[in-house]
Amino acid sequence: xxxxxxxxxxxxxxxxxxxxxxxxxxxxxxxxxxxxxxxxxxxxxxxxxxxxxxxxxxxxxxxxxxxxxxxxxxxxxxxxxxxxxxxxxxxxxxxxxxxxxxxxxxxxxxxxxxxxxxxx
Length: 120
Description:
Blueprint lengths: L9 H17 L2 H10 L7 E4 H7 L5 E9 L9 E7 L1 H10 L1 E4 H7 L6 E3 L2
Helix pairs in contact: 1-2
C-alpha cells in the first residue's frame, strides 16, 4: 500500500496549518473543511469556471474555491472570489467587477467566515 504524503509545497502546507489553527481558535468548521480539501493531490482539487460562480453566488457574497478558478463565462455580480490560484483571464474578469483574493487574505479579513460559500 502506498503511503499518502499530502501536499509537498511549503506554501500549501502553511495554508493548511493556518486554516486548521483558525478552525480551532474561531470554532469555524468551514476552515477545517477547506484544510481537508487542500490536502488532496493537486490533480484532484476543484476547478471552477466563472459561469458557475455567477450562477450560484449571490451579490456581495464570497465564493471560496479550494482549487483553481478558470475564465470560461462571465461574472455579472459584485462578488469576492477567494481561491488557491486563478488563471490570468479569470483574475482580470473578476477584478473588473468584484475582487479576487487568496485564501490566506480571506482568512485574515474574515476569520468568522461570514457570507462565504464553497464552490466546486
